[in-house]
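Hi V.,

You were right to ask for the full record rather than a summary. Here it is.
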Amino acid sequence: AVLISNQNVYAGPGTSYEKIGSVSTGESVFALFREGTYCYIQYSVGSTGVNKCGYVQTNKLSDFDPQDVDSFSPSYENRYVRGSVQTYWGPGAAYAMAFPVPRGLQVQKVGMTDGTYTLIEFEVSGELYRAFVRTSNLTTTRITTDVHTKMIELADLEIGYEEGANNDTKFGDW
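Predicted structure:
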């Protein structure tokens, strides 16, 4: 498919999602699927050779028949992130990095997976995004940290205490 005009690329199917890039008039893109009036495309990021995926309006593509790509209907399922992990703008680490997401963040599994990576929807600073995360980093179990464990983790970070190390004073020199 080819863009018929300069277009913003969004992190989801609509302008309620954050703008994550742009593509220029005449630029060739690969249409992966369509969702509503938007098409999920793969495109190159400048001359870097890195690919990125995102959504553009389907009617802004030429040399393209919407019936030639599958229609996608999301099926949302609650998930939690197992650890602080990196998300990507496509299904794998070969794509441009999106955002790191923190351990325990509640996300929505959108229903698309290639087995290794899963498309999730989440908020960062009040902005709505979709990106891919390694499927093994998602769980259906809510992740909580009790206050006592969290205080010990923070104290260890603050004073540099290491379990098993020769720490003359656990609380530093003061």
